[in-house]
Design a protein that fits this description.
Blueprint (H helix, E strand, L loop, with lengths): L10 H31 L1 H8 L8 H28 L3 H5 L8 H12 L1 H12 L8 H21 L5 H35 L2 H15 L6 H18 L3 H22 L15 H24 L5 E2 L2 E2 L2
Antiparallel strand pairs: 1-2
């Protein structure tokens, strides 16, 4: 007798169910976070946060609670719940295995190091994008939303001590990276792989969803580019951890650079998007393509099977 697979849901249904689960868990996380903040600091702190007033004695601590409980934990719990309870295939959907060539960690590190010029180029191009006249209302809303996100991020990343820097590297760098990778390169990319049956399509569709999730239109292209890099890290290695490592390097280095700039240890503003020239952009592009081919060769060349975790390699 042929054993039927545990998960018989179509990819479209999987996607719809996962979105509903993620939204409900995030909404629940927001309610819990607001309840915790109100219970510890009072309703006035919530009012200050909603008014973008971060000068109060408790607002920054409340922002950390809001970030952790309403966002980081929910986007970690949602894919875990989906993989274990709904589809009952945690290994293919989460890809938690550490069985991959460890040289990939070094290659991923160099790729992230060399990617800065291309991230800058895509960001500069993104900043110049202008929506048609009939979408001006949407463009205004996007700019206002990004300004709110910028103010919140600036408040959280105001670091006066090395311990505050370490805390942000852990919370914003490490925990966020792991949670987002389980959600996007874990569950969603697996769903898209099974839906499209094309590795490249799955990677880029997931990268688009990843960027759209952050609701920052003027940072859409660089985040999509990073999402695609992380997608290839996972698709070729069969493990979530090279992507989580690359994601952590991106987030953590931004936190450290911000701290060093605030402490006047470096003169280069991390928000400056005009550091490299066109020669740097071209060099970055060529080296990244070469390193991705090296990464793929190392990852797939040491596998005895043409499939990893049931997913065909592209």
């Amino acid at each position: 007798m042929v054993k039927k697979p545990v998960n018989q849901m179509t990819p479209l249904l999987q996607f719809a169910v996962f979105v509903v689960i993620a939204v409900l868990i995030i909404l629940l996380g927001n309610l819990i976070a607001l309840g915790i903040i109100a219970g510890i600091y009072g309703l006035s702190t919530i009012t200050d946060i909603l008014s973008l007033k971060f000068s109060g004695p408790n607002t920054i601590s409340a922002l950390y609670i809001l970030q952790l409980v309403s966002t980081t934990i929910p986007i970690f719990v949602a894919p875990i719940f989906f993989a274990y309870v709904i589809v009952k295939e945690p290994k293919p959907y989460l890809k938690p295995s550490f069985r991959f060539p460890w040289m990939l960690i070094i290659v991923a590190f160099v790729i992230m190091l060399i990617s800065s010029p291309l991230i800058e180029l895509s960001s500069n191009f993104n900043q110049k994008m202008v929506l048609p006249e009939f979408l001006k209302g949407l463009e205004r809303w996007m700019k206002e939303s990004e300004e709110v996100a910028r103010k919140i991020t600036t408040a959280i990343l105001q670091m006066n001590t090395i311990w505050e820097c370490i805390k942000n590297v852990f919370l914003i760098g490490l925990l966020t990276a792991i949670a987002e990778e389980f959600m996007f390169r874990g569950v969603l990319q697996t769903i898209m792989q099974r839906w499209t049956k094309n590795t490249h399509a799955a990677i880029w569709i997931t990268a688009i969803l990843f960027s759209a999730f952050h609701m920052e239109f003027y940072g859409f292209l660089p985040r999509m580019f990073l999402g695609a890099l992380f997608g290839y890290f996972v698709a070729w290695s069969g493990s979530i951890w090279p992507a989580a490592w690359g994601h952590f390097l991106n987030n953590g280095s931004a936190v450290i650079a911000t701290y060093l700039f605030q402490q006047k240890k470096i003169n280069l503003n991390p928000d400056d998007q005009h550091v490299f020239n066109y020669a740097g952009y071209i060099f970055s592009f060529i080296i990244i393509i070469v390193l991705l081919l090296v990464y793929k060769k190392i990852a797939t060349g040491l596998n005895t099977s043409p499939e990893i975790n049931g997913e065909e390699l592209g």
